[in-house]
Amino acid sequence: MLEAVQEELGDVFPFTDPEDWRRNMRKAFVGNKHGDAEGVDFQTMYDVTMQSLVIARMWVGLQLGADGNTLKERVSSDEIGKRVSRFIAW
Q1: 20 to 30 A Cα–Cα from 55, which one of 21, 41, 44, 48?
Q2: Does residue 90 have a pLDDT over 80?
């Protein structure tokens, strides 16, 4: 499902390392859901949660007809986007 979201965002996917995001997001989710599974540290949990909020907001924006380039321009000045700016690709 994470790959499907990434594919749908296409060239407006905001982060430099999509595989890293997918891997950490999956580990964070599974680690929280299953107590015996490997999880992530708090900082990684925070980072992937903030990244996922950015991705969700961009996806919703695209579904509502927003221009992808405008979304890209605004994400780094957004309150959530600023918190993960070190991961942003542009």
Answers
A1: 41
A2: no
User: What is the distance, to the nearest Å, from the Cα of residue 82 to the centroid of all Cα atoms in its chain?
Assistant: 13
The encoded tokens of residue 6 equal: 């990434």
pLDDT digits (tens, 9 = 90+) for 41-72: 999 999 999 999 999 999 999 999 999 989 98
- In the beta sheet, which residues pair with residue 88? 15
Cβ of 85: how many Cβ atoms within 10 Å?
11
Task: List the structure tokens of 45.
Answer: 């949990």
| The residue type at 77 | S
Looking up tokens 């407006």 gives: 12
The pTM of this model reads 0.85
> What does the block give as tokens for 62?
């695209």
Q: Are 83 and 33 in contact (CB under 8 A)?
A: no
Q: Does residue 39 sit in helix, strand or coil?
A: coil
Beta strands in 5-66 (DSSP E): none
